[in-house]
Amino acid sequence: MTISIKEKILYSANKVIEEKGLNSFTLDEVAKEAGISKGGLLHYYSNKESLIKGLIEKYVDLFETRIQSDDVDESKNSNWLISYIQEQYNQSKIDTNTMYGLLAAVASNQNLLQPVLDKRKQWVDKINKTKDPVLALIISFACDGIAFSNLLGLDVLDECQKSKLVERLITLVKECY
User: Fold this and answer.
1) How many Cα neighbours within 13 Å face the side chain of 44?
2) Structure confidence at residue 151 (pLDDT)
3) Tell me, what's the pLDDT at 137?
């Protein structure tokens, strides 16, 4: 499967942030990593801010798609929260690459996080419809903690501990519905 130039740029931007840090996150460095000219990069992303916005939008879209694809039975709202738990856990294991745009936005312009904030508000609306919204919020924030601890390099749990934590969170979901 071939990826589009735009996808390659986003992948390369995440890779630069992951491997070289935010100080090396420049359009020149991303273009070099993507194997294209800076002019080619600028054709898709006119400046660093638009590139970060692209990273954020890609992260939100990918995360939402993964949650929705796992949510096979719309009549069981608990599936959504279980999918959320599993996706945060999966991201903490294998997919921090799509999350590095969040770090770039936090460091450069927090207004770029608006799509994430908007999506999180939608998720909280879903959570507020549960029988125990406070417990559901605790579960969602615990999941966020797993993913963000890994992203920030603060993860101290081994895979066994994380798996047990996820299992327990999924068990708790039953109390929310």
Assistant:
1) 22
2) 79
3) 95
* CATH code (residue 17): 1.10.10.60
Tell me the C-alpha distance between 111 and 10, whole Å.
Answer: 19
**Number of domains within the chain:** 2
Rounded to whole angstroms, what are the CA distances from 129 to 26, 54, 73, 102, 122? 43, 31, 17, 28, 11
Q: Are residues 5 and 72 in the same domain?
A: no
- Residues 164, 134 share a domain: yes
> Are the beta carbons of 77 and 131 closer than 8 angstroms?
no
User: Along the chain (177 residues), what's the average pLDDT of each consecutive run of 10 residues?
Assistant: 86 90 92 96 95 90 80 59 86 62 83 90 93 95 86 86 92 92
40 and 63 co-located in one domain: no
Secondary structure (3-state) at 153? coil
pLDDT of residue 165: 92
CB 167 within 8 Å of CB 173? no
- Supply the pTM of this predicted model: 0.80
- 172: tokens are 């708790």
Domain of 21, in residue numbers: 1-46
